[in-house]
Amino acid sequence: MIFQDDTDTYEDFESLALRWRGERFGSVGIVQKQFITFNNTLNLRSGQTLEGFTLAYETYGTLNEDRSNAVLICHALSGDSHAAGFYTGEKGEKPGWWDHSIGSGKMFDTDKLFVICSNVISGCQGSTGPSSIAPDGKPYGMRFPFITVSDMVAAQRYLIDYLGIDKLFSVAGGSMGGMQALQWAVDFPERVGSVLFLASTPRASTQNIAFNEIGRQAIYADPNWKFGNYYGGAIPAAGLSVARMVGHITYMSEKSLEEKFGRRTQKGSELSYHFKTDFSVEAYLKHQGERFVERFDPNSYLYITKALDYYDVADGYHSMNEALKRTQCPFLVLTISSDWLYTAAQGIELVNVLRDLQREVEYRHVEASFGHDSFLVEVETMTTIVGGYIDRLLEKQPKKSEGLRLETAEH
Amino acid sequence: MIFQDDTDTYEDFESLALRWRGERFGSVGIVQKQFITFNNTLNLRSGQTLEGFTLAYETYGTLNEDRSNAVLICHALSGDSHAAGFYTGEKGEKPGWWDHSIGSGKMFDTDKLFVICSNVISGCQGSTGPSSIAPDGKPYGMRFPFITVSDMVAAQRYLIDYLGIDKLFSVAGGSMGGMQALQWAVDFPERVGSVLFLASTPRASTQNIAFNEIGRQAIYADPNWKFGNYYGGAIPAAGLSVARMVGHITYMSEKSLEEKFGRRTQKGSELSYHFKTDFSVEAYLKHQGERFVERFDPNSYLYITKALDYYDVADGYHSMNEALKRTQCPFLVLTISSDWLYTAAQGIELVNVLRDLQREVEYRHVEASFGHDSFLVEVETMTTIVGGYIDRLLEKQPKKSEGLRLETAEH
């Protein structure tokens, strides 16, 4: 249970989980966001192109000599490249979004692994997206080309090339991050050592699309949106806030909402019999919406939710089976019992096709009550399952250093 | 299965169900919306008062001599008094919202029953609400007093008095209608012969509140809302449309969305790779939003969703048990397997308390895949269960005509 009892202080799951985990034990410490600009042309799934692009990224741990210990972490809809550590180390600074799982001795153990995380293209946290300046000197806005998950992955491939990594030890991600991880294994099978697919889906469901469309409609309806031309003026904050509230409900289970908030009123006050924020759950959602507006670009929200809706690993193939035939690596597929955004049935669909194809799949279904966000919140359970899976993969790796010694002996 | 195959024609569940049922067999025929204005003061739960109010209502069938066959039907959030029949009989006219269940030989059999349905106060279909003209000659807007489900019921009581009915044979409703039916049994126990509580809840859940609050935030965010002072000008259509879309998703199950729409695109076209309406489910939801705007007042939406959120049958009592101790009648409680708005667990909570209190309760759990709206859509099943329950109640009634004959014989 990671919620605080103080219902008047609303913080999102991640920061609460962090506090609960106990500060900076095993932290990767001070990190720096890095930027790399590619002058290459990105040929997009839509047929459009992106002429040059920047990726914001961070790395944690050390790349080993044979460059075989790199893990690419892919972030979810609202994530960014800052997966772990601190930028300044000042008191009260919030660490990266998956800090409790990346560091010395943690789920992604930086004593052994070199961890990379980059902001997706079409994002708004340093990688090129609709809020970036186009070649004509003005923000792209809705002129930014249409982006798919496959395009995000194609951009990441340039970063992996730049870092001199031929084959990733693993590509990992929860939610939209899982889609990217899966897409890596289809688009670049020879470069992926394993996929960690957490609380995700091989294709967006009808309900997934429906919820995202409502969020987009809320943004379109905001007169400040102005067809995306709001840069330099008032942003469509109200629309984005409603979109985030819709999204946020889908990240939590009915049970976790009920247990945390029930029908409690704010500060235990009486019902107002007025159009005030009566219930704690209302204040919580409003707070989530307002905080999100401070850090996220509404146009990026439109682009990325469209990428989510378009996501179907079978895209470009005749079937999911045909698409997944391209994969070569082992998979960990993890679903969460209370996740109603990306249900167990969606994960199992992937497992079944992979097993039909004789791929090596470890399927784990986690009993957890927090809904979709459990993959971030249930740190102990996730560390046991995912960390354990990584350890077993590491053990299976050929011991390169021994190999080198043998070679030396043969000289 | 009541959906049409033509995915380009989007109509709501009710009208599709109607078409499927087969036209006007057993129809109550041409009906007229009636209005009754009370000059009484309505003392509201908030402590405020409403000085005089109008109710729009309709009746179907004939009130019997001893006035013992009256059924009050309470409508849901977006419903109105037009539960059955036609206003003009012109070709293509849409009948009342529960037409397939009210009429000769139907679930509510008008050969035996006198059916009453009135628009709730704070509504916008003829009963006094925020769009009505206040004593100062201007629309109430947000000056309209705060309304609870108990207040809706208190207003209906004046109508039942006016119709000269001491005791209702039954009070029935689905969704918010079920809340009203239950509240009747608590507030006026001696006037309720039975309660038919369908796909409803004795108290709004945290998730119920959360979804409603998002709808309200969408309306508040619409600059046309102007704190409710939009009458005579542009209405906050975009906000209300988003609110309806959010609501509509909760009325359908994931499975029914998947089966109906899947990932199909509009008219079977290719994906646009643009910010167009790609998927059929998006077009369906948008259509639902747009149609709703044509017939519903945004301020009424705010008032009624607040009434829903406030709903807790224990309100004013120490517990649900204490509140329900006031009830005297038998209950039919019906839940639907795929209803994730008002879950089976919520209905069962009511059943358990009623059984603890030794009340006569028939609990029926219906396996149906359409989600919350199944109570409107699954006509055959509902007719069997609810119609059958009503028949058994009718059989148990003392035969008044026989009693009269005996009295005559004794003269």
- DSSP strand tally of chain A: 10
Count, helices of chain A: 13
Mean pLDDT of chain A: 92
User: Main beta sheet of chain A, described?
Assistant: 8 strands, mixed
Q: What is the end-to-end distance of chain A?
A: 59 Å
Radius of gyration of chain A: 21 Å
Residues in helix, % of chain A: 25-40%
Which consecutive residue ranges of chain A, at least 5 long each, have pLDDT under 50?
1-11, 16-24, 403-411
Within the largest sheet of chain A, what's the order of strands?
1-2-6-3-7-8-9-10
- Helix/strand/pairing category of chain A: alpha/beta
The ordered H/E elements of chain A are HEEEEEEHEHEHHHHHHEHEHHH
What sort of overall outline of chain A do the alpha carbons produce when their principal axes are compared? Answer: globular
Oligomer: homodimer
- Which band does the percent of strand residues of chain A land in? 5-15%
**Which two chains touch over the largest interface?**
A-B, 55 and 55 residues
What does this structure look like?
Chain A is an alpha/beta fold. Helices cover 37% and strands 14% of the residues of chain A. Chain A has helices spanning 13-21, 149-162, 176-187, 206-221, 237-251, 254-260, 280-295, 298-310, 320-324, 344-356, 374-377, 379-396, 400-410; strands at residues 34-43, 49-60, 70-74, 102-103, 108-109, 114-118, 170-174, 195-198, 331-336, 361-366. An 8-stranded mixed β-sheet of chain A has the order 1-2-6-3-7-8-9-10, sandwiched between helices. A two-stranded parallel ribbon of chain A has the order 4-5. Chain A is globular and about 70 Å long. Chain A starts with 12 loop residues before the first helix and ends with a helix. Chains A and B meet through helix 4, helix 5, helix 6, helix 7 and helix 8 of A and helix 4, helix 5, helix 6, helix 7 and helix 8 of B.
